[in-house]
Fold this sequence. Notes:
By secondary structure, the chain is an alpha+beta fold. The chain folds into two domains: 8-155 and 284-307, Triger factor/SurA peptide-binding fold, CATH 1.10.4030.10; 166-270, Chitinase A, domain 3. The chain contains 13 helices and seven strands. The strands form two sheets. A four-stranded antiparallel beta sheet has the order 4-3-6-5, with helices on both faces. It has a three-stranded antiparallel beta sheet with strand order 2-1-7. Strand 1 (36-40) and strand 2 form a beta hairpin. Helix 4 (93-109) packs antiparallel against helix 6 and helix 7 crosses helix 13. The longest helix is centred in the last third of the chain and has 27 residues, at 276-302. The radius of gyration is 24 Å and the shape is globular.
Amino acid sequence: MKLISNHPLWAQLASICVAIIATLMPVAAFAQSKDVVATVDGVKITAGDIDTYCKIMKIDAPSADTRNTIRETLIDRMLLEKFLKEKKAVPDQAVLDQQMGAFVSVADHTKQPLEELLAKRGLTTAELERFLSVDLKWLNFAQKTITPQQVKIYFEQNKNRFDGTRVTARQIFWKLPQPMSDEALQKKLLAATAVRDQINKGEITFEDAAKTISESPSGKINGGLMEDVAYFGAMPTVITQIAFATREGELSQPFVTPFGIHVLKVEKIKVGTFSLDDAYPLVFERMSQTLRENTVLQLRKDAMIERK
């Protein structure tokens, strides 16, 4: 098994540690509610559990919608913890010790015991260690489940996503008012298709259409230009997956995302040169993420979940 010493999850976990450390400053103690917000196979998730998650992730004054989202996250984590326990997955103790050591260092700097410092945020060392352990346990499971051969096949099947390929494209964008009926959406899509047809017939250039029609700031300023776009990067993948599936010089069909309606024109494709060895950590991370999402979906189907 190829070890993922520079796996992207390390950076993610490090970011979480930084966020947690940033919260470990003296604040007024808060009361954690014991009100039950959900049960998973009879095990309770309380409002206090949501409060703890907010403190760990430095989410201040969460809205009702945010708390509902966190409740679903906690349901997923509870299901995953049970699953990983059954699979006898364990965290890399050296990494866990390193992360916990970061908090000890903060406590030493403030001349307070770690337990006291955490208590001021309504946390315990056990809660903190348990929180950090879930992702490390999952990584242990994923490394035993996803084989190097599977990573190689996935890389070859999705090479332009991982080999450093960059796309330069232009975009025309239409906002969608909310709420919006299916009939109104279809009318918007027909209008976008009509604009695409005009461009293909040479009645207007894509750049001019973007400047006059597009409802995104980049459309007005530079004709919707999006330069040097990677598949995984600042641009949402709901957009890059269309850009990377469109041939150079061609227009995409109008497509709908949570942001609105888009039409893309791919102007240039710069093929990447990264090898599997170069891309291995990122490929593994994406496969691990997909495996985790699919695992949680199946666990949800099999579990008895009640929301209060």
